[in-house]
Amino acid sequence: MACLMAFVAAVGATSGTYQLVADARDRRRFPPPGRLIDVGGRRLHLTDEGTGSPAVVIVPALGGDVSDWIRIQRELAANHPASARFPSRF
User: Which tens digit of pLDDT belongs to each residue from 39-48?
Assistant: First the structure.
């Protein structure tokens, strides 16, 4: 029984380590679009397009994602600066 417990613990530790390494590698290989800005010690993920005035800020709600709004952001960017904020997941 002790051998089985040690095996399960070793497999769990190996799996966790692999996931941490893979996550770090993926963050380097596939950086998110846009930029991170610091607002009061919190990092917000924004995408920016367009120039001019007034600025339009898109904040997806109800479980939506910026990718749902990218087409609208690009259309707005033809005449206005348009920023979209990625929601905080964690």
Answer: 888 888 888 8
Structure tokens at 78: 């033809």
Burial class (CB in 10 A: 0-12, 13-18, 19+), 82: buried
Cβ neighbours around 83 below 10 Å, total:
23
Angle ∠(21,22,24) on CA atoms, nearest 5:
65
If asked whether residues 57 and 78 sit together in one domain, one would say yes
DSSP 17: H
Would you give the DSSP letter of residue 77?
A: T
Q: What is the pLDDT of residues 4-21, one digit of tens each?
A: 999 999 999 999 999 999
Q: What pLDDT, in 10s, does the model give residues 60-69?
A: 777 767 777 8
* Enclosing domain of residue 68: 34-90
Cα–Cα distance, 83 to 48 (Å, whole number): 4
